[in-house]
């Protein structure tokens, strides 16, 4: 009997720890801001008010351009909310699920292409995914090496 009580206590403690860690998971915007590769994209989301859309429960999938790619845009493009919405879609699209897709519709209404060129290279509108499946409390982030225009 004591053996089962110990197992029960262990399982309860483990489930509470898991639940507690999920409560403190970072949101999409928090992850983007804290990542040195995507901080400029996060700033643009805040400046345009697009952050209000992705601060909701979600889930959302974000294709975040690197700072190097985002730097190439003009000031006007960086403040174009439709251009920023080209990088966001409703739902959780992990790398694995993206490999089964060919076209997806973003929050801007634009349909973008997904190319699975081989077993290792996955591109979104010809932009290579450099880091995939960054989990957040309200979705997933994939870092891409370009901007979806």
TrEMBL record:
* InterPro entries in the cross-refs: Adhesion/Biosynth-related, FAS1_dom_sf, FAS1_domain
Pfam families this protein is in? Fasciclin
The protein depicted here goes by the name FAS1 domain-containing protein
Where does the chain cross the membrane?
Answer: none
Q: Where is the FAS1 domain?
A: 25-148
Q: What high-level taxonomic lineage is stated for the organism?
A: Bacteria, Pseudomonadati, Balneolota, Balneolia, Balneolales
GO CC, any one term: extracellular space
Gene3D superfamilies with a match to the protein in the record? FAS1 domain
What highest taxon heads this organism's lineage?
A: Bacteria
> What species is given as this protein's source?
Fodinibius salipaludis
Q: Where is the signal peptide?
A: 1-25
For this UniProt record, the keywords arranged alphabetically read as follows:
Signal
